[in-house]
Amino acid sequence: MSTEEYTEIKKSTIYAVGIILLISVVGYFMLKGSGKNTIGGLAEAVPNGDPQEVTIGMKNYNYYPNTINVKAGRPVRIRLDGTVYGWPQDILEFTPTQPGMYAFACSMGMGRGVLVVE
Amino acid sequence: MALKEFMQTLTKDGVEGELIKASLVSLSASFILLGIFYFFKLRYIENFIPKYGFYLFFAILGYALILPSIRHVRAYKEFPCMSGMMIGMTIGMMAGFLSGFYIGATNGMFWGSVFGMAVGMFFGAWNGKCCGIMGVMEGLMAGFMGGLMGAMTALMMFNDNLKAAGVLVFLISAVIMAGLNYMIYKETRGAERKHKDNEFFTVLYSLILTGATILIAVYGPRSVLFQ
Questions:
Q1: Which CATH architecture group holds A52-117?
Q2: How far, in Å, are A21, A116, B20, B181, B214 from residue B69 at the CA level?
Q3: For residue A40, what is the nearest residue in chain B, using CA coordinates?
């Protein structure tokens, strides 16, 4: 191998190593926290009180009711009636901790609603 | 064998030998810009890394795939019609799909589509003009479809394995762009270089794309579901 060929290969190797290093270092910082999916207000909490029961159906091509008011700190139990398709279980339970308004929708973004936590 | 020769040209001086360097320059420029933004503004945003880190990181990697290919095309300037159509279609589709996917994952389908279509149609048409109007049309159509599909895919994956899909999309796009570079090499073997872009070209477009992605993802308009 001539000196020129050696230098060319060395340059491209340095570039390739540089790319790998950059991706590794920056990727470590950018991806290390991104596994956590914290949805505000739905972190683990100690349930306090009887569950707030809500039943959701479909009416006029949207969820009904599509505005749900619940209290923070109390468990919520959302049931789906027979008009809603595609959900693997009939009941969704969680305890909202932070007041606010949270949008929810089906996976296609077609049926939508707002959960108001007071 | 042509593939083996192509791999060897990646390590030599010449148009193909600049592909790896252009990727490094693009990544460096984009990450430096992200670092500056982060230092001055983004670190004060609550949950910035968990919410946006993954998508911004892969968007930047996507741009580091696309810009060297664009440079590669511009180096030879003119191509036969079929090759030019393939170039416009591939670059338009990939640029549109990648940018649409990652913005769609943070801002919703509408804004992801708008951004993806804008990026895809611009790069598709710009590079497709190497073979005339057919390449421009192919680039526009591919950018349009890619941008829409990228955002749609992100939204449909929202309640599914969105991040795994993001990695998969990136890896498949990388293979396709490598294939495009190989195709350009095969089409232009023996041809002389007609144009040389210096590193400023790569840095400029990396900064524009990365800056726009960061601003739209973090501060831009978003659909109701992503408020």
A1: Sandwich (2.60)
A2: 22, 49, 10, 6, 23
A3: B47
